[in-house]
Amino acid sequence: MSKLPFELFLALRYLRPKRTFVSVITLISILGVALGVAVLIIVISVMSGFDHDLRDKILGFNAHLTVSQPGQTMKNYADVEKLISQNPNVIGVSPFVLGPVLVETEGDTNHPALQDAPMMRGVDPATEGKVSRLPNYIIAGKFDLSGRGIIIGSDFADNLHLAVGDHLSIYSVREIKKMKQAYDNKEDEMILSDDYEIRGIFQSGYYEYDARVVVVSLENAQDLYDLNDSVHGLFVMLKDPYQATQVKGQLTHSLGGNYYVSTWMEQNSGILNALIVEKNVMFYLLFFIVLVAALCILSAQITFVIQKTREIGMLKALGAARLQISAIFIFQSAVIGIIGVASGLGFGMLALTYRNEFLHFMNRLTGFELFPQSVYGFSGLPAIIAPKDVAIICISSFVICVLGGLLPAIRAGRLKPVEALRYE
């Protein structure tokens, strides 16, 4: 004798696989729920990983706050640096020069000279470690900017076939202005570039930085941009990067209206907001897979109620209450939901665990890169399994499955014994 409530006992018995149309629809419903849950977990986890890793790369390479003077360079930056350092939330301040330059490799008889136009970042080697993790990103050579030393990104080095010890010619804004002036005056003047030695290669893990940024000393950057003893601004590192907006208000008040303070969130608002919007949109779109599965459950339960009309009539005649009859079909929908959600959860976790292995396999199988680093900026497929997101997906999917069988269950409970047994 089973110790289960007879409603649950009958629900489980009716769900035993049989070669009927209802069983096929039930199986499709379970697969639909499993697929919807798995895809939702995979996509939301990957999007969360994107957001987390992108923020980590941005905060590792860039400072939390940037202080500048709009329309002019900052000449008294040492005094401003002292004033900023007095804020209790600030743990590091460093001057910088930032702007585009034209570079050219040496070239030889076998390899012609290559050109590129990266962003040059002039930093103070003594204080750069206080506002970024750039010194820790060196994978070849060392963080040495003395003399005519330069640090380049790993992808930049690969693109121009460069290694530690090679030399780069840098044409700054000053040289480009001289070239234009000589051309306008129709003068035949030789413009010499500045020659730099590659002392180190860094890898931040974010393609935009590794392929588009070169780093020189602050003095060399000032010389390249004819800044004398002024800089473009100050990088500021905080104890908590998510307090940047609050500290921005404090510094704006203490520095006055001649200075502009921007946060790392404002500087990267476009891509960060796009990720949040895309994550939300993907959640709602993919949730329709679960809704389709719920419709399959609804269809299966309607057909099942019609097939079991005689049994429902007999149960009602034997004294079964309306709620007990409805509970049989609600339990059926719940069991389908539990099996589907559990299967989807397991498959989703498995797919996330081996996501990069599967990605590499698909790359080899298809012959092209499905997740190009140059487009997405990451060498691997990031993912973060957030328990809150997983719980929302699983619980909401289960509730929808139960609701999918609610209407047929109510209809079954309302059947009268005489009507159910009329033609028996």
Describe this structure in words.
By secondary structure, this protein is an alpha+beta fold. Helices cover 55% and strands 15% of the residues. The protein has 17 helices and twelve strands. It has helices spanning 6-14, 21-61, 77-85, 154-160, 173-184, 207-212, 218-224, 244-255, 264-267, 269-307, 309-317, 322-353, 355-366, 373-376, 387-404, 406-414, 417-420; strands at 65-68, 90-100, 102-105, 115-116, 119-123, 138-141, 149-153, 167-171, 194-202, 213-217, 233-238, 260-263. Strands 1, 2, 3, 4, 5, 6, 7, 8, 9, 10, 11 and 12 form a twelve-stranded mixed β-sheet that branches. The longest helix is centred in the N-terminal third of the chain and has 41 residues, at 21-61. The relative contact order is 0.19.
Structural class: alpha+beta
Question: Mean pLDDT, as a whole number?
Answer: 82
Question: What's the shape?
Answer: elongated
Order of helices and strands: HHEHEEEEEEHEHEHEHEHEHHHHHHHHH
Contiguous uncertain segments of 5+ residues: none
Describe how the helices and strands are arranged.
Blueprint: H1 6-14, H2 21-61, E1 65-68, H3 77-85, E2 90-100, E3 102-105, E4 115-116, E5 119-123, E6 138-141, E7 149-153, H4 154-160, E8 167-171, H5 173-184, E9 194-202, H6 207-212, E10 213-217, H7 218-224, E11 233-238, H8 244-255, E12 260-263, H9 264-267, H10 269-307, H11 309-317, H12 322-353, H13 355-366, H14 373-376, H15 387-404, H16 406-414, H17 417-420
Parallel strand pairs: 5-10, 7-9
Antiparallel strand pairs: 1-11, 1-12, 2-5, 2-11, 3-4, 3-8, 6-9, 7-10, 8-9
Helix pairs in contact: 1-12, 2-10, 2-12, 2-15, 10-15, 10-16, 12-15, 12-16
